[in-house]
């Protein structure tokens, strides 16, 4: 079974500061990249960003970017200029964009942005 | 565009009762998933379906059955509900090459 580690159960960050959320995963499949999802208190799961295993550059999407270290099997999510609305649970999940494998998630990091 | 739709959104069951959670997606996706999320925990995969007509067990399949009725619909059945199955259930779907997993809004199930 895959092992996914999010070492920060909770983080408090001052508004407008950058924040880095950690995620490491243990899979033998070299094609696996990483998904990141946000779950606000309302409960829905919101797709943030995906890093493909063979992508040459780190993925970026607006204020979200990934620090992908394939050899270490880690893909840390960086949120720049944090906002109050970023307060939520954040989950990572290794996988491909092939859409046909079991998708398992880490235990999540609860991020709280302080005004 | 509805995306992934789950019903019901809330349900209270008595121990031993049965029920089916319905999930439908209108994006023509091949892969669909059922997860459960216990309070303060991450998502755990119950069952998934890589394509119409196929289903496979995830991390926590015991006490559940699934049916991939057609490409659009993937239902989750609790035959004899137990208090340990009190959780929030999420259905999701994805398509090859998209890099995006779409989740439903969740179904809150309480077994008393």
Itemize the secondary structure elements and their pairings:
The complex is a heterodimer of chains A (115) and B (112).
Chain A: E1 3-5, E2 10-14, E3 19-21, E4 24-26, E5 33-39, E6 46-51, E7 60-61, E8 64-69, E9 74-79, E10 88-95, E11 109-114
Parallel strand pairs in A: 2-11
Antiparallel strand pairs in A: 1-4, 3-9, 5-6, 5-10, 7-8, 8-9, 10-11
Chain B: E1 4-7, E2 10-13, E3 19-25, E4 31-37, E5 43-49, E6 56-57, E7 64-68, E8 74-78, E9 87-94, E10 101-103, E11 107-111
Parallel strand pairs in B: 2-11
Antiparallel strand pairs in B: 1-3, 3-8, 4-5, 4-9, 5-6, 7-8, 9-10, 9-11
Number of distinct beta strands of chain B: 11
Number of strands of chain A: 11
Pattern of helices and strands of chain B: EEEEEEEEEEE
Q: Give the strand line-up of the largest sheet of chain A.
A: 2-11-10-5-6
Termini separation of chain A comes to 40 Å
Q: Count of DSSP helices of chain B? A: 0
Low-confidence segments of chain B:
none
Order of helices and strands of chain A: EEEEEEEEEEE
Number of helices of chain A: 0
How is the main sheet of chain A built?
Answer: 5 strands, mixed
The radius of gyration over CA of chain A amounts to 14 Å
What sort of overall outline of chain A do the alpha carbons produce when their principal axes are compared?
Answer: globular
**How much helix, percentage-wise, in residues of chain B?**
under 10%
Q: Round the mean pLDDT of chain B to the nearest integer and report it.
A: 92
What does this structure look like?
In chain A, a hairpin with a 6-residue loop joins strand 5 and strand 6. Chain A is an all-beta fold. In chain A, 0% of the residues lie in helices and 48% in strands. In chain A, the strands form three sheets. Chain A has a five-stranded mixed sheet, with no helix packed on it. In chain A, strands 3-9-8-7 form a four-stranded antiparallel sheet, with no helix packed on it. Chain A has a two-stranded antiparallel ribbon with strand order 1-4. Chain A is globular. Chain B has 112 residues and is mostly beta strands. Helix content of chain B is 0%, strand content 51%. Chain B has no helices and eleven strands. In chain B, strands 2, 4, 5, 6, 9, 10 and 11 form a seven-stranded mixed sheet that branches. Chain B starts with a strand and ends with a strand. At the A-B interface, loops of A face strand 4, strand 5, strand 9 and strand 10 of B.
């Amino acid at each position: 079974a895959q092992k996914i580690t999010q070492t920060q159960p909770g983080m408090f960050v001052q508004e407008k500061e950058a924040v880095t959320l950690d995620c490491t995963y243990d899979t033998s499949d070299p094609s696996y990249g990483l998904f990141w999802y946000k779950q606000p208190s309302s409960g829905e799961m919101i797709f943030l960003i995906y890093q493909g295993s063979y992508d040459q550059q780190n993925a970026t999407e607006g204020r979200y970017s990934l620090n992908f270290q394939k050899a270490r099997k880690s893909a840390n999510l960086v949120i720049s200029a944090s906002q109050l609305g970023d307060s939520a649970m954040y989950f990572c999940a290794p996988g491909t964009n092939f859409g046909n494998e079991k998708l398992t998630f880490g235990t999540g990091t609860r991020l709280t942005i302080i005004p | 565009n509805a995306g992934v739709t789950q019903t019901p959104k809330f349900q209270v069951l008595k121990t031993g009762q049965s029920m089916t959670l319905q999930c439908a997606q209108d994006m023509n996706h091949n892969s669909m998933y059922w997860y459960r999320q216990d309070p303060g925990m991450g998502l755990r995969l119950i069952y998934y379906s890589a394509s119409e007509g196929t289903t496979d067990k995830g991390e926590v399949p015991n006490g559940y059955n699934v049916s991939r009725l057609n490409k659009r619909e993937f239902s989750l059945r609790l035959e004899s509900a137990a208090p340990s199955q009190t959780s929030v259930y999420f259905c999701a779907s994805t398509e090859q090459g998209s890099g995006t997993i779409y989740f439903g809004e969740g179904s809150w199930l309480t077994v008393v």
